[in-house]
Give the backbone structure.
Amino acid sequence: MGKTLIITEKPSVANDIAAALGGFQERDGYHESADYVVTFAVGHLYELLPPEELDPRYKRWTLDTLPILPEEFRYRAKQGQSERLRTIKKLLQRPDVDLVVNACDAGREGELIFREIVEHFESTKPIRRLWLQSMTDDAIREGFARLRPGEERENLAAAAEARARTDWLIGMNATRALTKRLKGRREK
């Protein structure tokens, strides 16, 4: 049996899990034991592309191009995250890793952070979910004894993705519309 890759949302959580499970050696950007490899994101590693990168007609802010309703939402790595992504990719693609544990924060955003990573790297490895309400050593060990199937939280990931896209649609369209409508006015 191979190793299990554990991906957390924050470095501090990766450290806590390694300490609670024990037997880890610290490596460059991750921890490793006989059974586990633990690494981390630093919040969202990806962001939605701005309108002008989806279609050149959105480079100019004009009212006639509104509303912006992309046929496809596309993502890119956030600036400054290439090293973190290289580390995660290297670990995710290791041949001795045969299971991935989503240990990101219990909630909508943690689910999205994890899903963006595994989808971007097109991982087909099975996923299990660690769902913690407490970060005590006992709670972490108990959580690993009760890992859940990753599919159980797909609706939570879909809700987070819908929230992100809705925020993008409202933000991009409202910002451009208000900027153009108020631009010629004298009052601020």
Notes: DSSP finds six helices and nine strands in the chain. The helical segments are 11-21, 51-54, 82-92, 108-120, 137-145, 154-182. The longest strand covers residues 97-103. The first helix runs from residue 11 to 21.
